[in-house]
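Structure tokens please, single chain.
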Amino acid sequence: MSYRSLESKIRDIFEGFSAAEKGARESDQNDQISVGSYTTKAFEVSPEAQKLYSDLPKTTNASNAQNAAEALDKLFDMVKDVEHTGVATQAHIARALIQADIVRREAAGMFLEKQHEKLIQAALDAIRNKATEHNVIDPNDDYHPADDKRFHNPPKGNDPDPIPGPQGDKDIDNLKRYLIKRSRAAERKIKIIDAD
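Here you go.
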């Protein structure tokens, strides 16, 4: 018999689903499976994994089951991440293959290789389907987005004077362009200092 939380069954009643129509699948993110001392976090990705782990045989090795559930949970978390972003990188695929190897090793200890292989292949296919070639950066590519002429801003401090002559003079002595004007006493002090 599969595990179903009370909240999940009440939700099914309000939504009008019977357990037979629903197929006894956990669909809520809060309804996760406990395997040993580990509670899964991403098993809603695979209803088949929920069914398998809720009905494990009593002769199953508990440590293998817990390790396999942890690795599968990491694999399903990667599937959720890839589905959310819509892009799978080579790093995603490499980490997924590592987790798949761990699951295979632990499934061999539980004697449930065939059931786990279906779960692994479904998860790997979901990740590989989102892998695209445009994610690969060509190291020989000379174009950089910062080289785009639309984003080029020349330095503003080196602009020449717009008007030649005293009208365009930006020297400190031309006080018409500055908001702060010196008092006569300050100008005298500057002249005294310049004379020294």
